[in-house]
Design a protein that fits this description.
The chain is α/β, with parallel strands linked by helices. 33% of the residues lie in helices and 15% in strands. It has 13 helices and 15 strands. The strands form five sheets. Strands 5-10-3-13-14-4-15 form a seven-stranded mixed β-sheet, sandwiched between helices. A two-stranded antiparallel sheet has the order 1-2. A hairpin with a 2-residue loop joins strand 6 and strand 7. The two termini are 41 Å apart. The model has no long low-confidence stretch (mean pLDDT 91).
Length: 452
């Protein structure tokens, strides 16, 4: 391979109806350097990513909140599954999203919690079509940094729930099953089906008729999408250096493994008599979560998107967690009224969610980018729009910020903000770091500079 041979970072492996984006390779160095001066890139030239991972119904706060502040804190019970990544995230306490409060609207804290979480707006109380919240922070970022990617943003969920009608005390279901809002009246519906996410990432980006034909052909002959781009992949491999050959081989192996798991999930997922999916569409909720996390990693790794939201389970969810021995509904348990048995069960659910997040961080850190990794060039918010599900409070929010934002975030600490600090202050600071500067967001009172 010539030392002067370079690949543009927007290169795809192509076949009929298929377009497989490439991971960041050393041979892309010149094109990476071309964006290094942008605020949306790290000093090394790698793009900065941001994601928001939502878990419902608050947490058992005494088992979430560290006793000490700073770097020398001990992980409380719920966060112990993240022990291997303690240096990669900050525990942030003291934040509030005050627009989740009733403000005269009565009951409906679950709907308001998720509707306000990323918008900083008070949801209009309606179960009709006249829904209203606000533009979410992820979409503000996507408007700026999403111009450079195939997908401006990627919305994911593991809940195939109702999208219309009333769900919580007169609030539309749209508030609980959507996290991203493109405008005050337009939520961005997340994708629940892993197969559909896979096709968005690796199908023909032109959206032509050949794309649907190719999908049908692959299904008929049970062929991998990589079979369609095999010739392109072989030609590229022959021109790469050894390090890039290894990276490409590892990446393609990961794509094929995820494709295999998606196919298994698709075949095993139950269907109702009318052919539709039930709300709990996977026999294994854990496998569903992991598949979504795996594809999010691939989306970031290939720079297919730099902005994402993921609703692990919708706010107010009453899902049971039989695989961990909790057969009661999550929402029911969150109203524990001090019962130690129910507090124990809700804490085990919180631990389960933390384990899935640890899996995601494992995968992010396994992707090398220059002298660091994918997580180093990302900012990942993990949390809930309620503090304690029993109290329905919208302060004391459980928030983690993982990643180093391309060197702009100092991680590994418990940072305690002043009580009821607007969560939107954190979001403003994150927007600054991806080059989507915003003067004010929701009830923000300034930037949260303590993450630096």
């Amino acid at each position: 391979m010539s030392n002067n041979w370079h690949i543009h970072r927007r290169t795809f492996l192509r076949g009929i109806g298929a377009a497989v984006a490439l991971p960041m390779l050393d041979a892309m160095a010149p094109s990476l350097a071309s964006v290094a001066s942008a605020a949306s890139a790290s000093p090394a030239g790698f793009p900065k990513r941001m994601a928001f991972i939502y878990v419902p119904n608050g947490v058992t706060l005494p088992h979430w909140t560290p006793a000490a502040v700073g770097a020398e804190y001990e992980l409380p019970r719920i966060l112990k599954p993240l022990a291997a990544h303690k240096g990669d995230f900050n525990v942030l306490t003291g934040f509030a999203q005050s627009q989740g409060l009733a403000l005269g609207d009565g009951a409906g804290d679950h709907a308001r919690a998720s509707a306000s979480f990323l918008t900083g707006a008070h949801a209009r109380k309606t179960s009709g079509a006249d829904i209203r919240a606000g533009v979410s922070v992820d979409q503000i970022a996507a408007e700026q940094v999403g111009r450079d990617t195939v997908l401006p943003s990627l919305e994911l969920s593991c809940d195939l729930g109702r999208r219309v009608g009333a769900c919580d005390s007169g609030y539309s279901c749209a508030y609980q099953f959507n996290l991203a809002w493109r405008s005050e009246t337009m939520p961005v519906m997340p994708e629940v089906e892993p197969k559909a996410v896979f096709e968005r990432l690796f199908g023909d980006v032109s959206g032509g008729v050949d794309s649907s034909k190719a999908r049908s052909r692959r299904a008929m002959f049970q062929r991998s999408i990589l079979d369609f781009v095999a010739d392109d992949a072989r030609q590229l491999q022959s021109r790469l250096g050894r390090g890039d050959q290894r990276k490409l081989d590892e990446y393609l192996t990961a794509v094929r493994e995820i494709e295999r798991r998606v196919a298994i999930a698709e075949k095993s997922a139950p269907r109702l008599p009318d052919g539709t999916r039930p709300p709990d569409m996977f026999a294994s909720f854990e496998e569903h979560i992991k598949l979504m996390f795996d594809m999010l990693v691939l989306a970031f790794q290939t720079d297919s998107t730099r902005v994402s939201t993921f609703i692990v389970s919708h706010e107010g969810s009453n899902r049971a967690y039989g695989d961990i021995g909790v057969n009661d509904g999550h929402h029911d348990l969150s109203h524990h009224f001090g019962d130690p048995k129910n507090i124990e069960k809700i804490t085990r659910i919180n631990e389960f969610h933390a384990r899935q997040f640890a899996y995601f961080l494992d995968k992010m850190k396994a992707v090398q980018e220059g002298d660091g990794n994918l997580l180093d060039n990302s900012m990942i918010v993990y949390g809930s729009g309620l503090g304690d599900g029993n109290r329905h409070n919208h302060d004391e929010l459980p928030i983690l910020l993982a990643g180093r934002g391309g060197g702009t975030v100092t991680s590994g600490r418990h940072i305690k903000a002043d009580n009821r600090t607007p969560l939107n202050n954190l979001f403003l600071s994150m927007l600054d770091r991806v080059g989507a500067k915003c003067d004010r967001f929701g009830d923000s009172t300034g930037r949260f500079d303590a993450i630096a």
